[in-house]
Design a protein that fits this description.
It is built from 16 helices and 2 strands. It is mainly α.
Length: 339
């Protein structure tokens, strides 16, 4: 695969990483869906499960070239480069757009998920009772998760490590949104907004020659939280990839049917027309987390009236569908060229 990958393939890998990073940031959306539809999901899982005991032996013995080749390093490095760039660019743009144009952002991702369901369903040729059961169970689980009430924020480092393990599920398991799980665990703002922004601000200050952040206790706390979260994410990514690689190898059809069910169930999370419900005390006063932000309790979904705003939202849904179909077309061409 590495030898046949052209320069344009490498550029598109970085772009796919950008899209995966952006998708992972949005609650209800799974970066794994991007990998699945764009045609590199199985290579992604295969490459991650190569990070094993043999890989560490190669690394420790100084055989870096062999380690790079064994772990499909070029593929992973380009993909993760796109994700890192995304977290410091597209993710910040997403924060702005979700704040000011929330309906349209949800509409784009709703369209992407609809197209993903269509795209993945085409993979199935011969349905059987077990696959239908897996589809139903996946859908029920996906819908059930969308109606759970979030917990309160918790910066305990052991819990943060656990959050890291869980959050990467969206990268390895399409339809299972890691960022939405973080909302349910109460740590979405802490881990994907505040700590990422703290790292961005720290890098900016370092490059400006300003090291005053070392005496900023709140900044140090957030950087420590981000470091533990990142370690947990790496552990989760490698662990999930080994489990999924085994399952895909032995129970591919049932696994894919379950994944399709997860994605169908996630439609409830990203339904564009909803209002955010915040937690209140018995007197109706809005509760705040440790950062002074209102705590999300859940979302109240509703059917829209047909207005200009609704028409624009539908246009954005169609735009989201076109993004996924374009990714699928490119993924199909890539698979043909490497066949």
């Amino acid at each position: 695969m590495e030898k046949t990958r052209t320069f344009s393939d490498k550029v598109f890998l970085v772009l796919k990483g950008l899209v995966m990073g952006a998708a992972n940031k949005v609650p209800g959306v799974s970066g794994g869906v991007v990998a699945f539809v764009a045609g590199f999901y199985e290579e992604f899982i295969y490459s991650l499960q190569k990070i094993n005991g043999k890989a560490f032996k190669l690394l420790i013995s100084g055989r870096f070239k062999s380690f790079y080749s064994y772990t499909n390093g070029r593929f992973l490095s380009l993909l993760f480069l796109g994700m890192v760039i995304s977290y410091f660019s597209i993710s910040k743009l997403l924060d702005y757009f979700i704040k000011h144009y929330e309906l349209y952002v949800w509409s784009v991702f709703f369209g992407m998920i609809i197209a993903s369901i269509y795209s993945i369903s085409k993979e199935f040729k011969n349905w059987n009772a077990k696959m239908y059961l897996a589809l139903c169970l996946g859908t029920i689980l996906g819908v059930s998760i969308s109606f759970l009430d979030p917990a309160t924020e918790n910066d305990n480092l052991v819990f943060v490590f656990f959050c890291g393990i869980i959050s990467v599920s969206g990268m390895t398991l399409p339809g299972f949104s890691g960022s939405f799980i973080l909302i349910l665990l109460g740590n979405y703002v802490l881990l994907l907004v505040d700590s990422v922004n703290a790292l961005f601000d720290t890098f900016y200050e370092i490059f400006s020659g300003d090291f005053s952040f070392t005496s900023n206790l709140e900044r140090i706390r957030l950087l420590k939280v981000l470091a533990v979260f990142t370690i947990g994410s790496v552990v989760g990514l490698v662990t999930f990839s080994h489990i999924l690689n085994y399952i895909l190898r032995h129970y591919k059809s049932i696994t894919l049917a379950s994944i399709l069910g997860f994605i169908v169930g996630s439609l409830g999370v990203v339904w564009p027309w909803k209002t955010t419900l915040f937690k209140t005390d018995i007197n109706g006063t809005l509760l705040q987390d440790s950062n002074g932000k209102h705590i999300i309790e859940n979302y109240q979904r509703y059917l829209p009236e047909f207005t200009i705003e609704t028409a624009i939202a539908i246009a954005y849904i169609l735009f989201g569908i076109s993004i996924v179909l374009a990714l699928e077309y490119y993924g199909h061409k890539t698979r043909q060229s490497h066949a």
